[in-house]
From TrEMBL:
Keywords: Amino-acid biosynthesis, Cytoplasm, Isomerase, Lysine biosynthesis. This is Diaminopimelate epimerase. Catalyzes the stereoinversion of LL-2,6-diaminopimelate (L,L-DAP) to meso-diaminopimelate (meso-DAP), a precursor of L-lysine and an essential component of the bacterial peptidoglycan. The record marks 164, 213 as: Could be important to modulate the pK values of the two catalytic cysteine residues. GO terms for biological process: lysine biosynthetic process via diaminopimelate. The active site is at 85 (proton donor), 85, 222 (proton acceptor). Pfam families: DAP_epimerase. It comes from Kitasatospora setae (strain ATCC 33774 / DSM 43861 / JCM 3304 / KCC A-0304 / NBRC 14216 / KM-6054) (Streptomyces setae).
Length: 291
């Protein structure tokens, strides 16, 4: 039997996602299905898959159902789950608005790191949604090191709902080809894996970022990475001005607004580009080359 699902494809600064409506949490997508759907050659292709599920219907979100009707059930393209996604949740809000599941204004969305408030402007499909990211945490330990292509840097553990190791580099080319994943030491610092953010300074309140995402590899943008990068600057240089930071990524620019108390908001484009029907059991199959 051919299984089908409806999907919408979209992106935030070219961090691209599949949104799959699953209101009653009954699709039962396996990690293998997610890997196949996100495969760029033998599937549809994406940096992540967002199941659009009613909080009340999902065991990971039922306790948030009173606060947030919808749960972003985030899956990495390697089939694992993640707690949060700064670009994904802004796109998720755009999807809720454009499919009539939410109204313009502030929409609470449940995630595996709690309920996040996303502000989505009405009447402008190009308007930038903004997510309240709260205050980043710095859980340590000290002495984290990241190595990429033979070079090693000190890193800071920043938790923005999901885990990040932030590295300050002189030039974004310094880490080299990130198809070879960076290694992070000590090995026990991130028992569930980590996203590595390579950050350089372009001017006052202006950063640029390359990201090797946990469960995905190098991507063209990462919203939580942008917030973690700004948090690392403020942690390293207490007293630097708060206000708006611009974070350039390969796929565009994100804005991170820092309140005097350290609360952060992330804004940027979130664009829906296509809707279609997928056939998950035909995807991800690779024939051995004929000799
Ligand atoms: N692209 C994201 C982060 C997605 C989750 C990440 N791969 C993880 O495993 O934590 C963003 O925009 O924040």
């Amino acid at each position: 039997m051919t299984r089908t699902l409806t999907f919408t494809k979209g992106h935030g600064t070219e961090n691209d996602f599949l949104l799959v409506p699953d209101p009653d949490a009954e699709l039962g997508l396996t990690p293998a299905d997610v890997i196949a759907l996100c495969d760029r050659q033998a599937g549809i292709g994406a940096d992540g898959l967002l199941l659009v599920t009613r909080s009340a219907a999902h065991p990971d979100a039922a306790d948030m159902a009173d606060e947030a009707e919808w749960f972003m059930d985030y899956r990495n393209p390697d089939g694992t789950t993640a707690q949060m996604c700064g670009n994904g949740i802004r796109l998720f809000a755009r999807y809720l608005l454009e499919t009539g599941r939410a109204r313009p204004g502030t929409v609470p969305i449940a995630t595996r790191s709690g309920v996040r408030q996303v502000h989505i402007p009405g009447g402008d499909p190009d308007g930038h949604p903004t997510v309240a990211m709260g205050r980043p945490a710095f859980p340590g330990p000290d002495g984290i090191k990241v190595t990429a292509n033979g070079r090693t840097w000190p890193a800071l553990h920043v938790d923005v709902g999901n885990p990040h190791a932030v590295v300050q580099v002189d030039d974004l080319a310094d880490p080299g080809d990130l198809r070879t994943p960076p290694t992070v030491e000590p090995a026990g610092a991130y028992p569930e894996g980590v996203t590595v953010d390579f950050v350089t300074t372009r001017g006052p309140a202006h950063l640029a970022l390359r990201v090797h995402e946990r469960g995905a590899g190098e991507t063209r943008s990462c919203g939580t990475g942008a917030v973690a990068a700004v948090a690392a600057v403020l942690h390293r240089e207490p007293g630097v001005p708060t206000g708006r930071y611009t974070v350039d990524v390969a796929g565009g620019s994100l804005a991170v607004d820092v309140a005097p108390d350290g609360d952060m908001h992330l804004s940027g484009p979130a664009v829906l580009v296509a809707t279609g029907t997928g056939y998950p059991n035909r995807m991800g199959r690779r024939e051995a080359p004929q000799s």
